[in-house]
Amino acid sequence: MPTYVYACKDCGHGLEVVQSFTDEALTICPECQGNLRKKFNSVGVVFKGSGFYRNDSRATTSSSTPATSDSKPAEKAATPAPAAAPAKESTSA
């Protein structure tokens, strides 16, 4: 259950109350019977793990250099010729 922070408009008294989402907001100060207002704080949500950031769903390749129309396709690497089989020595007996 969330904790809500209230402050009195009249006397400045502050209090924290644990309330359900369906509970009614408090309106009367327990100290001076003045008007209470609910204070809103930043939400304490932390996203951990992958998939929460814009770059998590992108491909691993980077296209930081734009392709130009006059670029040449990559040439295939030359494969070395197969080595010649060693000649067998003839042995005469």
TrEMBL record:
Give me the segments passing through the membrane.
none
Reading the lineage from the top rank, the first entry is Bacteria
Locate the region Disordered. Answer: 54-93
Q: Which residues fall in a compositionally biased region of kind Low complexity?
A: 58-93
Q: Which Pfam families match?
A: Zn_ribbon_8
Q: Which residues form the Putative regulatory protein FmdB zinc ribbon domain?
A: 1-41
Please give the PANTHER family that the UniProt record associates with this protein. Answer: CONSERVED SERINE RICH PROTEIN, REGULATORY PROTEIN, FMDB FAMILY
Name of the protein: Putative regulatory protein, FmdB family
